[in-house]
Specification:
Helices cover about 0% and strands about 40% of the residues. It is mainly beta.
Length: about 375
């Protein structure tokens, strides 16, 4: 069945900024997408059902798991069962794409018993995004402190993913809230990837003195993943959905300290200094969200591959990447659970994908977010197991 997304709705959701039209580059990858409606060498099973707009999933070392729901709840999963009582309810501004978004676990957990969460909230007559720290109390959590605040928020383009690097620093993906020009303004926290300490301080080796900004020129980054061998940070980013009358050009980027990724002056791979070109830029609208590298042992044929959950294109994308002296080269791109670019995927909209401590891959649907077609039991967490 063909998707019926109205161009009129897309334009109504768009703005045409008072900014020069960006240079549109090419697709940097020299491979074409392949389609595998059933995946490759795997089976899929339902793990958890009846969630409302789940956004982020993390696993705790004692066997528990936590999943955020955009209206403001963090739900506890214990013994493979969703607990009825929320782990914590956070007062969020659930407006459009805003609300409760990314989760991250303190790298020294449980010695440091903290969970981090990014959410939209109201302050005065405006809305902002912030990252809070939650103290784990077993069956519930309590807010401990605010880690990062006054991040621009809006109805759209909040970014929202957070992730700890092995160096112990927290990275925060912040969107430009449909205000394209702020992505190039270092003094603004919108359209950036931010880097702070575990307590919210600014690391002295950040690229801009006294600032949490780590990279800039981003539109709506929604995924963060660390290469298991090099430790490099990869990010997924939504391309334009009507601004400057342009669409598509969704990206996968390799993030460099102090790097400028071009928005809104460049989209795609334009080879224009000082901007950093993406590793991948799809002309077809893809909206990539959460992503992860597979480094487990249960699915050895997938080891080292990057998996990306996608929204409108309703697929789980498998990307094979080779490290070379000049950087990275994409050798293969597979779109799982969909027959073609314009077809509905088997599981609908996908928001996040993570690797569990059991070595299996878990992915979240997002069919209840107002843009999908939910069925009974949506939204779900699915688990990928060996064939």
């Amino acid at each position: 069945m063909k998707k019926t997304i109205s161009l009129l709705i897309l334009i109504l959701f768009s703005v045409i900024p008072a900014y020069p039209s960006p240079i549109t580059g090419k697709e940097p990858q020299d491979v074409k997408d392949k389609f595998f409606p059933d995946g490759r060498g795997i089976k899929v099973e339902v793990w958890i059902e009846n969630l409302e707009i789940p956004w982020s999933l993390i696993f705790l070392p004692d066997g528990r798991a936590l999943v955020s729901e955009r209206p403001g709840r963090i739900r506890l999963i214990k013994n493979n069962r969703l607990q009825e009582k929320p782990y914590i309810i956070i007062d969020v501004a659930h407006i459009g794409e805003g609300g409760l978004m990314g989760l991250a676990l303190h790298p020294a957990f449980p010695k440091q018993p903290f969970i981090y969460a990014m959410h939209t909230y109201r302050k005065g007559g405006d809305i902002f995004n912030r990252v809070i720290r939650i103290r784990d109390q077993g069956e519930k959590g309590d807010i401990d402190k605010v880690i990062a605040d006054n991040i621009p928020a809006g109805k759209f383009h909040n970014g929202g993913r957070i992730s700890f690097r092995p160096d112990g620093m927290l990275y925060i993906a912040a969107g430009e809230t449909f205000n394209a020009e702020i992505a190039q303004v270092i003094q603004s926290l919108g359209g950036k990837i931010l880097r702070v300490t575990q307590d919210g301080g600014i690391p002295p080796d950040n690229p801009f003195k006294g600032s949490p900004v780590y990279s800039y020129g981003h539109r709506n980054p929604q995924g963060l993943a660390w290469h298991p061998e090099t430790g490099d940070l990869f990010s997924s980013e939504h391309g334009p959905s009507g601004e400057f009358l342009k669409f598509g050009n969704d990206e996968i980027n390799v993030i460099r300290k102090g790097g400028n990724y071009g928005w809104p002056q460049v989209i795609g791979s334009a080879d224009k200094k000082p901007f950093i070109d993406p590793l991948i830029a799809w002309k077809k609208t893809t909206p990539p969200s959460g992503m992860t590298f597979y480094a487990g042992d249960k699915l050895p044929h997938l080891r080292g591959d990057l998996f990306v959950a996608t929204l409108r294109s309703q697929s789980l994308i498998r990307i094979r990447i080779k490290k070379e002296s000049g950087g990275y080269r994409v050798t293969d791109i597979e779109r799982w659970f969909v027959k073609g670019y314009d077809d509905n995927g088997k599981y609908g909209r996908l928001r996040d994908v993570v690797v569990g401590p059991d070595g299996l891959i878990y992915f979240l649907t997002n069919n209840t977010d107002g843009r999908g077609n939910p069925s009974k039991g949506d939204d779900r967490i699915y688990r990928i197991v060996p064939e």
